[in-house]
Specification:
5-stranded parallel beta sheet; globular; binds adenosine-5'-diphosphate; binds tryptophan
Length: 317
C-alpha cells in the first residue's frame, strides 16, 4: 500500500466535551478518518492537561473519559491510531530539544501566554512552554495536516517555526505541517453568543441528556436580528442546513419559544446516537483502556523512528 500523508490532532483531557469541541474539532477527526486519504493519529494530550489537572485519580478518569468520547463519536481504532501522549516519551524528549533552539521573547508572543499574563496569573513554565510540547506532538509523526479550531492556529505556526529552526540548525529532519480549519465552525458560539468554552460556562455538553439540552436551550440569550433570534439560529445551523431551517424560521417568525422547542428536538436527535454509544462504553472501561494502550504502542514505534534521526542530528546517544 502506498503511504498516505499523516493527519494528527490532540485534545486535552480536561473534562466535559461540548458541542463546540465537537463541531470545531472532533467532527473533523471522524470525517477525515472516514474519507481515508490520510493515516490518522488522534492523541489525548495528558501532559498538556497537567498544567491544569493536578490530581492523579482525576487525570486517569478524565483520560479514559476522553478515550470513550473518541470512540463514541466514531473514531475507529481499526482505521486510526488513538493514543495518549504520555505513552510516548519521545514527546517530552523532543520538546526539550526544541526548548534549546527557541528564545524566550518568541514564546512570550504566544496568545495563551499573553492571555494568562493579562489576567495577572502566576504562569507555570508548562504553560509558557506549551507550544514546544505541541510542536513535538505534531512533528514527531511527519504530520502533514492538523485539524483544529481557530484558537489553535498560532500553535501550528509555532510548530512550523520549530521545524524550520531545527532543519536550519541541524539538518532536514522535519516536515512542515499545515492546519486544517473549517471556516463555518471555526468559532462555535455558546448559549450567550460568545465563543463556546468550558471556561465561560456557556456550553452545551456533547453527551447531554434531553433534559440538559432543554435546560441549556431555554437559557439561550435571545438577542434578535430582525425576527430571527441570532444565538438560537447559530446553534441550530450546526445540525441543520440553511435550506432546512428557512421554512421553520419563516413559520415561527418572532416566536422564540417554538424555535427553541424545535432546536431541542434537533439537538436531541443529533446527540442521541452518540450518547447511547458513550453510555454503552462506560460499561467496559477495560476495553477502552486496551484500545489506548495498543494505540500507544503503534505511536511509539513511529515516534522512535523520527527520534533516531533527531538524536543523530543533535549528537546525543
Ligand atoms: P475549551 O475552550 O472549552 O476549554 P479546548 O480548549 O479544550 O476547549 O478545545 C479543544 C478543541 O476544541 C480545540 O481544537 C479547539 O480549537 C476546539 N474548540 C473549542 N471551543 C471551540 C469553539 N467554541 N468553536 C470551535 N472550536 C472549538
Ligand atoms: N493545544 C490543543 C488544544 O488546546 C491540544 C493539543 C495538544 C493538540 N497537542 C496537539 C492539537 C497536537 C493538535 C495537535 O486544544
Amino acid at each position: 500500500m502506498t503511504s498516505r500523508p499523516i493527519l494528527l490532532s490532540g485534545i486535552k483531557p480536561t473534562g466535559d466535551p461540548h458541542i463546540g469541541n465537537y463541531f470545531g474539532a472532533l467532527k473533523q477527526f471522524v470525517d477525515m478518518q472516514n474519507r481515508g486519504n490520510h493515516e490518522c493519529y488522534f492523541m489525548i494530550a495528558d501532559y498538556h492537561a497537567l498544567n491544569s489537572v493536578q490530581d492523579g485519580d482525576q487525570m486517569r478518569a478524565l483520560t479514559l473519559e476522553l478515550a470513550r468520547t473518541f470512540l463514541a463519536i466514531g473514531i475507529d481504532p481499526k482505521k486510526s491510531v488513538m493514543f495518549k501522549q504520555s505513552d510516548v516519551s519521545a514527546h517530552t524528549e523532543l520538546a526539550w530539544i526544541f526548548d534549546t533552539i527557541t528564545t524566550m521573547p518568541y514564546l512570550m508572543r504566544a496568545h495563551a501566554y499573553k492571555d494568562s499574563e493579562a489576567k495577572n496569573k502566576e504562569i507555570v513554565v508548562g504553560t509558557f512552554n506549551y507550544p514546544m510540547l505541541m510542536a513535538a506532538d505534531i512533528l514527531l509523526y511527519d504530520t502533514a495536516t492538523v485539524p483544529v479550531g481557530q484558537d489553535q492556529k498560532q500553535h501550528i505556526e509555532y510548530a512550523r517555526d520549530a521545524a524550520e529552526k531545527f532543519n536550519r540548525t541541524y539538518e532536514e529532519v522535519f516536515r512542515l505541517p499545515t492546519e486544517m480549519i473549517v471556516p463555518e465552525v471555526a468559532i462555535v458560539p455558546g448559549v450567550d453568543g460568545e465563543k463556546m468554552s468550558k471556561s465561560y460556562g456557556n456550553t452545551i455538553p456533547l453527551f447531554a441528556t434531553r433534559e440538559e439540552i432543554t435546560q441549556k436551550v431555554m437559557g439561550i440569550v435571545t438577542d434578535s436580528d430582525g425576527d430571527v433570534p441570532t444565538n438560537v439560529y447559530a446553534i441550530h445551523r450546526l445540525v441543520k442546513t440553511a435550506e432546512q431551517l428557512a421554512p421553520l424560521y419563516e413559520e415561527h417568525r418572532g416566536r422564540y419559544k417554538a424555535l427553541k422547542d424545535a432546536l431541542v428536538d434537533d439537538l436531541d436527535a443529533f446527540i442521541a446516537p452518540m450518547r447511547a454509544k458513550y453510555e454503552a462504553l462506560g460499561k467496559s472501561p477495560e476495553k477502552v483502556a486496551k484500545i489506548l494502550s495498543e494505540g500507544g504502542k503503534k505511536a511509539n514505534k513511529k515516534a522512535e523512528q523520527k527520534m533516531k534521526q533527531v538524536r543523530k542530528a543533535v549528537g546525543v546517544r
